[in-house]
Design goal:
703 residues, alpha+beta, Serine Threonine Protein Phosphatase 5, Tetratricopeptide repeat, nine-stranded mixed β-sheet, two-stranded antiparallel ribbon, 32 helices, 13 strands
Length: 703
């Protein structure tokens, strides 16, 4: 972590060190995977090599980073210099000669920008290695301003998206704030918008079929940044300038304008842009979908149905449109249509992401940051280790803890680790079940669908039945008839017994299918993936049912471990049993801090605060204010901040959004006083103050 609060710490930076087994292997591995990188690429890599005079041996250490300012070469050079000056091992070594290398992936041109700095000589060089092996690397002056600009924006996107995505985390990754001032925030917004026409090159999430002008990681990061900083006017102005320069982009970016207006609570402007866009193209699926969501939020599902249906008709392969249609049916209490629409949702397979298994290191050093200590949280964090590669709850548990855990909970956890469109579809099915109950869901399923296994069993049964009904003479005459047909068609070879059997089977099929068709003609075939979701939801409901019965019995025999409580709570959340889930997760957190439990509670509270009316409609009688009051949420924010800071996480857009909302509600001074009074014995109030001071500049109205 960068520290500059005193003259003694001015040149001090505490970073993780991963020691290579073989010198240069981290750089070599990164170079080897460049051709396979498809979207955002990995976090920036910092490699430091040293030559030891006595042994004439070179050794290498490395770590990862997001959020460093790459708008000029000055940022990486300053960071490498700070690492060199604060490295105690180089001071104690018989040689102070070292080389630092900074690597950053360019999502647009698909290549790695590298800055190499020598110490103590001070010389540096730059190069650009293309992912396409057929292209020659560029050096120094060959690395153009355009490549620098693209790499800056690529790094900025990663800095905004990686901190809140555990799947993108790497062991030994520092996460810094990419926009420390209002000036740098304005520059970042301007640069992101400048590259909007190229946004489709950086890839998109697995919820989207394929990247487009308005469905990509660049747009996702822009919306996050603007929501935190409140730079709506600047963003709208820059987009209008972009459209005026390239009028052909007007239709492409209307949806983005609508989203920005809605985030800024300017509904009149948003509706105006929607109306204008649909006048130009009445079949714009994404605009129709946005219109449906807006009307639905205004509690008019009857009006939303028209827009949602037209959206699906215009883009039947777009999951987001189907998702909205399902929600509209749920709000209209048309549960049959909701289930049928859910069965029709297009499922996207998981695309290959730029996530790779980390190298096996020789040794690792994860020194504690110099400030911000929260002893209890840091002790819990160090007992479990950092999160990386989306290992999840069990990834932080010891083998002994896992072996002592109820096998049902382990099995259910593994079977329900959905992502992308499957995760969203599971949530929709859970909402439906929450509203009408599991028995009614099963009745609807039986009434509407034939399961694939049931269908095949019926076909096999009909085939066996007809075969048993055939007399030997019938079988012979049928075979002769087929042989005669073959002869008439010019096929003179004598058919084998296998051919006769296959032909006889085929001759039964039309009649057999007619019988099966008559039985199932009023039903649809249930998609296999939806059948799997039903089974998974049943398991989650069983976990919640057992926990509910334990609670209602008075809790005399509740002897679950902290891990079991966490798995129970997360299972209840997946099945929308939030009241039981909150109780279980709060029990987990009372035993020791878990980042997954804390984030689950914070995300639930964020949903509630963002749209309380929608939350109540979907989740019925859950009383969030009494179960998760503001003081408890603030405590969770501080503890999550402390956990992240221990693992070099100096920036989280999600936490920044929650803190910003608290500032709007309570004011910055009251917020700081609350944290100071409750955690005065810890070092974390200093880190919280930094967040508040940083966010205050975006709340002054001087932007």
């Amino acid at each position: 972590m960068l520290n500059s609060h005193s003259s003694q710490k001015r040149h001090k930076v505490v970073v993780p060190r991963i020691h290579e087994k073989t010198y240069g292997e981290s750089l070599g591995f990164r170079t080897s995977i460049l051709p396979s990188l498809k979207d955002l690429g990995p976090a920036d890599l910092i490699h430091v090599s040293r030559l030891h005079k006595s042994s004439h041996k070179e050794t290498g250490t490395y770590h990862y980073i997001t959020g460093l300012d790459l708008s000029t070469v000055g940022g990486p050079i300053a960071y490498l210099s700070t690492i060199h000056l604060s490295d105690n091992s180089s001071k104690k070594s018989s040689s102070n000669n070292s080389v630092g290398t900074y690597c950053s992936w360019n999502c647009f041109t698909k290549g790695d920008l590298r800055i190499r700095k020598e110490f103590p000589a001070g010389n540096y060089s730059t190069s650009f290695i293309f992912g396409d092996r057929k292209k020659n690397a560029l050096h120094n002056s060959g690395v153009t301003d355009r490549l620098w600009r693209e790499t800056y924006v690529s790094s900025l996107i990663r800095a905004l998206l990686f901190p809140d995505d555990p799947a993108r985390h790497m062991p030994g990754m520092c996460q810094y704030n990419p926009v420390l001032s209002s000036t740098s925030a304005k520059y970042a917004v301007s640069e992101l918008i400048y590259f909007l026409p190229k946004g489709y090159l950086v890839g998109c999430s697995n919820d989207v079929q394929q990247p487009t002008y308005v469905q990509n990681y660049l747009v996702d990061s822009l919306l996050k940044l603007v929501e935190i900083t409140g730079l709506y006017d600047l963003a709208l102005e820059k987009i209008e300038e972009l459209i005026s320069e390239k009028p052909t982009l007007n239709d492409e970016f209307r949806l983005l304008l609508v989203k920005l207006h809605l985030l800024n609570n300017n509904e009149v402007a948003a509706v105006g842009v929607l109306h204008e866009g649909l006048q130009v193209d009445p079949r714009d699926a994404l605009l129709l979908n946005e219109q449906a969501k807006f009307v639905l939020k205004k509690n008019r599902p009857d009006l939303a149905l028209t827009s949602a249906s037209r959206s699906v008709a215009a883009a039947p392969a777009e999951f987001e449109c189907w998702e909205t249609l399902v929600k509209v049916h749920l709000r209209r209490k048309d549960y049959q249509s909701a289930l049928l629409a859910l069965n029709s949702c297009p499922m996207y397979s998981m695309r290959q992401s730029d996530i790779f298994k980390p190298l096996s290191p020789h040794d690792v050093e994860f020194p504690q940051p110099l400030d911000g200590k929260f002893e209890q949280i840091w002790n819990d964090a160090e007992s479990k280790g950092p999160v990386f590669n989306n290992d999840g709850v069990l990834g932080l548990a010891s083998k002994a803890e896992i072996n002592a855990t109820e096998p049902l909970l382990i099995r259910v956890y593994h079977s329900t680790r959905y992502s992308g469109t499957f995760k969203k579809s599971y949530a929709l099915l859970a909402y439906l079940t929450k509203q009408i109950g599991w028995d009614e869901v099963l009745r609807l399923r039986s009434e509407l669908f034939v399961m694939e296994e049931e269908y095949h069993k019926e076909l096999n049964f009909q085939e066996e039945e007809e075969e048993n009904d055939l007399e030997p003479g019938d079988q012979a005459s049928r075979s002769e008839s087929q042989t005669e047909k073959q002869f008439l068609n010019g096929k003179l070879e004598v058919p084998s017994s296998d051919t006769i059997h296959k032909t006889r089977s085929r001759s039964i099929s039309p009649h057999k299918r007619d019988i099966a068709s008559e039985k199932f003609k009023s039903k649809r075939l249930c998609e296999r993936w939806l059948d799997g979701l039903f089974l998974s939801l049943y398991d989650d409901l069983m976990v919640g049912l057992v926990w509910d019965s334990e609670r209602k019995s008075g809790g005399a025999n509740l002897t679950h471990s902290a891990l079991e409580w966490e798995l129970i709570g997360l299972s209840c959340f997946r099945s929308c049993n939030f009241e039981a889930g909150i109780a279980a997760l709060k029990t987990t957190l009372s035993a020791n801090f878990s980042i997954f439990s804390a984030l689950a509670l914070l995300q639930l509270y964020d949903f509630y605060e963002t749209d309380p009316a929608e939350f109540r409609r979907l989740n019925l009688r859950v009383n969030i204010p009494s179960n998760l009051n503001q003081d408890y949420i603030l405590e969770l924010i501080v503890k999550t901040l402390a956990w992240s800071y221990r693992w070099y996480g100096d920036f989280s857009p999600f936490l920044a959004k929650l803190i910003s909302r608290a500032i709007e509600r309570d004011g910055s001074q009251l917020l700081k006083n609350k944290v100071q009074s409750k955690f005065h014995a810890e070092g974390i109030p200093m880190i919280m103050d930094r967040y508040v001071v940083w966010l205050e500049q975006f709340h002054t109205g001087d932007l």
